Each structure stands twice: as C-alpha cells, then as structure tokens.
Amino acid sequence: MHNPLSKIVLITGASSGIGEATARRLAADGHHVVLGARRVDRLAVLVEELRLAGGTADFQELDVTSRDSVRSFVEDAHECNGRIDVLVNNAGVMALSTLEALRVDEWDRMIDVNLRGTMYGIAAALPLMRTQGTGHIINIASSSAYRVDPTAAVYCATKYAVRALTEGLRQESRDVRVTLVSPGYTHSELTEHGGDPEVQAAARAAAEELGMPASAVADVIAHAVAQPDTVDVNEIIMRSTAQG
User: Fold this and answer.
1) 168-183 as b/e, with b when 16 or more CB fall inside 10 Å?
2) pLDDT by residue (tens digit) across 15-28?
3) Which stretches of 151-193 are DSSP H helices?
4) What is the dihedral of CA 210, 215, 220, 221, to 10 degrees?
5) Dmax of the chain from CA atoms?
6) What's the CA gap between 66 and 58, in Å, rounded?
7) What is the DSSP letter of 88?
8) If DSSP codes are grouped into helix, strand and coil, which group holds residue 58?
C-alpha cells in the first residue's frame, strides 16, 4: 500500500558511511531512495538489500565533481518518479595534511567534491523543486565547519564554505526547505583515502575511539525529512558525548 508520506529522496555518496546509513534509515521509513556514488558495485548490493527488506530503491553511477553527472542523476530521478522531494548532498572527502606539505591535488579534490559537488547538486535540483513548489535540500557539512584544526585547513575551508552556501540558500528559500547537518567524529571511510599517512592514521584512531555510528547521523536526517512542509530544521551540529 502506498505511503502518502513517502518521499523521493536522492542521496549522493551513498556507497558507504553516512550516505549508506541514511539510505537504510529512509528506506526503512518508507521513502523511495535513489542512490548515487562512483562505486556502483556497492550501490547494487545495497539496493538489493533494501528491496529484500521491503524498501524501494534505485541507484545510478554518480561523480559529483562532474556537473553533467550530477545533472543526469537528478533529472533522471525526476523523470522516473515524476518529482524529487529531498536531495541529500552527502558525498565528501577528507585528505588531511599540513599546508606546507603542498598536497595541492588533494586540496583541489576536496574543493571539487565537498564544495563544487554540493553546488552542482543545488544547481540541478533547485529549479525542479521551485517548479514543484516544494522540496528539501540537506547538505552534510561537519563540526569542522565551525572550528579549524592544524592539518585540516583546506578540509575546514570547504566545510565552512558549505555552511555559508547552505545559509545563503536558506535565506533565499520559502518553498524549498534547507537543512545543514554537521557531524563530529563519525565511523566512516572518510579517513581512509589520501592525505598525509601519519595524520590520517591519527584521525582514524580518533574517529574509532570518539566517533558515533553513521546511523546516528542518519536518524537526525530522518528527523529533518519527517517534519511538515511548514517546518524547516535549519542547522544541526552533533557529536558523540565522548568527543566533548
């Protein structure tokens, strides 16, 4: 039986971590999730699991650094489902190192994924949501959008930018809801790719010791999605109690 409260939810970076946990939680809540990531093998397995559990889900290969790829992801979902209700801009990378290490290619990658990827998502979804007269854009930032740590200057810069971008979009929006979710240490694969090996290892150890499960972030996203159209949950910062 169709759930009248069911929404069409698009999630970027859905192959692991917060994106995967959010897909599981929202599918369990009865929403139709459309999952995007580069690792389509993982997406295929996840979608099969969600369907076997009684949920509805689709997936599409997605590279958020490509404007065309993001546009295709959003517009194909809109064409298949007749609307899009929620976009979760979740894809992110964190390659930690000191600035003097000059890992400029990794700086570019963080800007391209964390900031441009979020902007491309907004550019693709916002016109469709404006036409519908309703919609919800959820951007995943970080507690690093509120403080800067050594070895994380560029990562923090991208997350500060996502925070600013989201606040600007919120101020411009009446018919489209806008939410920023900023988690602290979270169990994910964020510390496993790139960066200075010693710095990344330290961050990985901290995340293991102090982090919260990705499902906790998914629960907060689900709360924001579940509010009525007249209620906009704007900004949530969350950390494990252990992080302090």
Assistant:
1) ebbeebeebbbbbbbb
2) 999 999 999 999 99
3) 153-172
4) 130
5) 58
6) 20
7) E
8) strand
The 10s digit of each residue's pLDDT in 137-187 is 999 999 999 999 999 999 999 999 999 999 999 999 999 999 999 999 898
Contacts of 76 (CB under 8 A, 6+ apart): 60
Nearest 10 degrees: CA dihedral of 33, 37, 39, 42?
Answer: -20
Catalytic residue among 120, 146, 155, 185: 155
Other CB atoms within a 10 A radius of the CB of residue 64 amount to 27
On whether the pTM is more than 0.85, the answer is: yes
Residue pLDDT, tens place only, 75-121: 999 999 999 999 999 999 999 999 999 999 999 999 999 999 999 99
- Judged by phi (left if over 0) then psi (alpha if -120 to 50, else beta), residue 155 lies in alpha
| Gyration radius of the chain over CA positions | 17
Quick check: is 146 catalytic?
no
Helix (H, G, I), strand (E, B) or coil at 9: strand
Q: What are the residues facing 56 on neighbouring strands?
A: 32
Distance CA 124, CA 130 (A): 11
Q: What are phi and psi of 238, to 5 degrees?
A: -140, 140
CB-count burial class (<10 Å; 0-12, 13-18, 19+) for 105:
exposed
Say which residues have a Cβ less than 8 Å from residue 20's Cβ, sequence separation at least 6. 14, 42, 46, 214
**Structure tokens belonging to residue 28:** 């369990």
Query: What residues contact 131, with CB distance under 8 A and at least 6 apart?
Result: none
